[in-house]
From TrEMBL:
<dbReference type="InterPro" id="IPR023393">
    <property type="entry name" value="START-like_dom_sf"/>
</dbReference>
<dbReference type="InterPro" id="IPR019587">
    <property type="entry name" value="Polyketide_cyclase/dehydratase"/>
</dbReference>
<protein>
    <recommendedName>
        <fullName>Polyketide cyclase</fullName>
    </recommendedName>
</protein>
<dbReference type="Pfam" id="PF10604">
    <property type="entry name" value="Polyketide_cyc2"/>
</dbReference>
Length: 147
């Protein structure tokens, strides 16, 4: 079983980061690895059970992910992969944001667990780490553009 954990202190406030990251369907609008992100069946992007579909920019196929939990009070979301063009199974990830009172910034943590063939585990883990790290970097870039 592969396990990944990524954390970062972002320059955005908790409310700014959460407003940006909580939109489950907006992934393709800001993450450089992905495109054509949308919520299937026209459901709201914060509805538990909604499914987002998006393409990987480098021609790596498409993914479908289902929102399992979303809490505005806890600034937390959880989702699972329904489809990926890779031999991954049982993928579940969770993202959580917390305030950093000094400097009015935000701490983000993102983790995932899934099954992947042993010979592909190291590459899969680096791919997921890079994806999560880039999410947080996108929050910083968005915050800088708004200043």
């Amino acid at each position: 079983m592969a396990r990944v954990y990524v954390s970062m202190v972002m320059n955005a406030t908790l409310d700014e980061a959460w407003a940006y990251l909580r939109d489950f369907g907006a992934l393709g609008k800001y993450h450089p690895f992905f495109e054509n992100s949308f919520i299937e069946d026209g459901k709201p992007s914060d509805q538990i059970g909604c499914v987002r579909r998006f393409s990987v920019r480098d021609g790596g196929g498409y993914l479908r992910e289902q929102l399992l939990a979303l809490s505005d009070d806890e600034h937390r979301c959880r989702y699972k992969i329904l489809h990926i063009d890779a031999p991954w199974t049982n993928y579940v990830a969770e993202m959580h944001l917390l305030p950093v009172t000094e400097g009015n910034r935000c701490f983000g943590e993102w983790w995932a667990e899934w099954d992947v063939p042993a010979d592909e585990e190291a590459e899969a883990m680096e791919r997921v780490k890079g994806t999560f790290r880039t999410f947080f970097e996108c929050v910083n870039a968005h915050h800088e553009r708004r200043k």
